[in-house]
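User: tokens in, sequence out, please.
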């Protein structure tokens, strides 16, 4: 029997806004947690225990089930030196791996360039959501960005196929003459042509898809479903990306209700994503990274939590060796960073692990250096 090796695929879910690490993986037996969270605290009896020190938020039952099955690696205390509490700056650092300056290329944009140096596939990377994350942006690198896969395409409102093809031909001829007129014109022209090609190919992804998995009606569920549809369509896509609704995890106020709702939706969506892939015998070559730009402050503000550091990341998949990686940052007052958790794992080491051990790429030029890798891949 001939066995065809599948190309590894990396999917990324960005929790925009700065997810509260302490109320996600909860240090429920630490007295410092109780003291610092008089109002914004998960009761110890509600926690889904991992061990006698930490456990999952009770809203994360589906993800806890995957963890118990050995499919989830929890990366504790993930961050970088001299952390920024600015959403924009911190996310820019995570996206470009440039902590000392404003970067002009995203780490996954560089990865796309390595994966497809001759630009043979305009769908090597696909983003689901409005706009293009900095992580995927790099000069000359085509990336499709999809708002809704079921309605995605160019000029799809034209019902008559001949009229639509004529309109698309006109559209493409607008771009083609720009090539050769200089760097900016070339970039815009090629981007336009790539978008035309990618849109029509991607619009077929949902046609042959069927599944018994019923995703929730939230945006994260929709986009993770779209990721599965794209993966199953066999377009050769190697990188799939989406973002939880803009800054939704920025829980300055009303955190207990909002954070619970967010993790109820997100945890279910991740489990549905995995189950959907599994149902289609397509889970063996997909790994999902879930990250956020920073954690929250150790002490609550009475209703929520403010920007902090020392976050939590998850890696999910069949290829993952589930468990805890790194130490949970200390909550002792004399070991805090200006009231924040210290980081124990550099996010660039997390990226390097995924790039080299999973995607088979040289991580150094992509993350701008050598960083300690982890052992969460089988």
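Assistant: Sequence out:
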């Amino acid at each position: 029997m001939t066995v065809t090796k599948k190309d590894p695929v990396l999917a990324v879910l960005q929790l925009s806004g700065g997810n509260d690490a302490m109320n996600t993986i909860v240090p429920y037996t630490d007295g410092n947690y109780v003291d610092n969270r008089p109002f914004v605290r998960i009761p110890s009896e509600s926690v889904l225990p991992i061990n006698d020190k930490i456990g999952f938020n009770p809203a994360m039952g589906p993800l806890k089930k995957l963890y118990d099955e050995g499919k989830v690696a929890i990366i504790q205390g993930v961050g970088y030196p001299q952390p920024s509490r600015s959403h924009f700056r911190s996310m820019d650092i995570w996206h470009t791996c440039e902590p000392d300056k404003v970067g002009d290329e995203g780490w996954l944009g560089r990865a796309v360039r390595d994966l497809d140096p001759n630009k043979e596939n305009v769908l090597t990377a696909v983003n689901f959501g409005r706009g293009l994350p900095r992580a995927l942006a790099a000069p000359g690198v085509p990336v499709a960005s999809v708002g809704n896969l079921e309605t995605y395409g160019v000029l799809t409102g034209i019902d008559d196929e001949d009229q639509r093809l004529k309109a698309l031909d006109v559209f493409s001829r607008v771009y083609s003459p720009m090539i050769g007129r200089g760097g900016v014109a070339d970039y815009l022209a090629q981007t336009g042509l790539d978008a035309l090609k990618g849109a029509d190919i991607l619009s077929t992804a949902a046609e042959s898809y069927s599944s018994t998995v019923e995703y929730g009606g939230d945006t994260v569920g929709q986009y993770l479903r779209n990721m599965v549809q794209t993966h199953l369509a066999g377009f050769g896509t190697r990188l799939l990306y989406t973002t939880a609704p803009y800054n939704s995890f920025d829980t300055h106020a009303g955190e207990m209700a909002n954070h619970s709702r967010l993790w109820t939706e997100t945890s279910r969506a991740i489990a549905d994503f995995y189950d959907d892939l599994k149902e289609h015998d397509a889970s063996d070559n997909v790994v999902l990274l879930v990250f956020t730009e920073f954690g929250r402050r150790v002490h609550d503000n009475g209703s929520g939590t403010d920007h902090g550091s020392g976050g939590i990341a998850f890696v999910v998949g069949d290829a993952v060796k589930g468990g805890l990686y790194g130490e949970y940052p200390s909550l002792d007052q004399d070991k805090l960073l200006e009231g924040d958790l210290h980081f124990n794992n550099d996010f660039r080491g997390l990226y390097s692990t995924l790039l080299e051990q999973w995607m088979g790429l040289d991580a150094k030029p992509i993350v701008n250096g050598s960083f300690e890798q982890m052992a969460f891949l089988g």
